[in-house]
Amino acid sequence: MQELLDHDPRPVPPVLRAVGDATPATSSVPRARYTSRAVHDLEVDKVWGRVWQMACRQEQIPNVGDSVVYDAPGMSLVVLRSAPDEIRAFHNSCLHRGTRLRTQPGHLDELRCPFHGFTWNLDGSFAGMPCPWDFPHVEASSFCLPEARVGTWGGFVFVTVDSAAPSLEDYLEILPEHFASWDLGDRYLGAHVVRVVPCNWKVALEAFIESYHTVAVHPQLLKTSGDTQTQYDVYEGVRHVNRMITPVGIASEHLEAGVEEQDILDAMFLTKDDAGVVPDGGSARQVLADRTRRQLAERTGGDYSSITDCEALDAIEYFVFPNFVPWAGYTTPLVYRFRPHGDDHSSAVMDVMLLEPMPVSGPRPPAAPTRHLEAGERWADAPELGYLGRILDQDTATLARVQRGLESASGPDVTLARYQESRIRHFHATLGEYLES
Length: 437
Description:
14 helices, seven-stranded antiparallel beta sheet, nine-stranded mixed beta sheet
């Protein structure tokens, strides 16, 4: 598989190929992990209150005073740029009577409570309140907004409310090394679309970290995607990170009839004129990879002649526990994020970001505005997602059925495949460690 994918040769930690005794021990998952309110409450304490979470992109808060609100179970944070080279995250609660300080992103000169006017500076220091004579017991020097810890990697801002959590660098384990050649900090946010989906957050996450579902959910991709040849990587001694690589430009083994190379190329495009012709002795994969290199160079002015076919074509998807899914390579610059929807354990918030390569010259393009899809809207209703919207709609169409099935069933626990669902097994092994700690 590694030879087929022609992946970069950088040394990585030992990989568990998820066969035999090398797999994570979790071969089944209790249904209660998806349906129980008690499990949700335990996750609020044991998971969301302890992990590092991606809050935003740095270019979403480019100027001093720019802010976003990051909500996760049991927490709400105002993440803002407090100085040109400083980002802070404050707990989103007034120290007077608890009012949320912010509900929307925006530019701030100060943090002012809308209820009684208590005000803080951008560095969290107390700036004052109406009628200070009535608060002789408030010492301004100690009446600062409580902060969460902040870290950055790859152009992302991460937060944790756990003062005892490891450093972000330690938490990310092998991820920075693996992305050394794909600096996501050298990308810009080309799209950000958010949608509430009708299922537990883990149901949504797990639908996007395996390719096993392609044959049933995405039959139109079988001519062009090697779903059954996906490489799943679980790394020895690594708790928070795993990976899969799905090759593109080859046909699925689910197709019984032979598929010619020209058929593969034609299936990638609307017309044969768009696709071009596979030369004698050549492959659709090579034509597609060369096309990607050429288009990247035309769009950005950069030199992509040395990137491998895998980097140019394949779906290289990483996962960082508990909910961050960045893609590597260049063909599909996707990022996913999954969270419970407020305090509801049976619905989830799913973010989809597209990170486009930066042009070699000129200023950094501004971050795309965040689009929140309303009830009844589809991913395909967000034109900035392009063709991906239709694929995402296929992915999420089954989520409510999965959730309802889990809630109504009285049979055995959820059973997982040994290899093709090894990333889900790894996720639940790590989740179990947190829940039991």
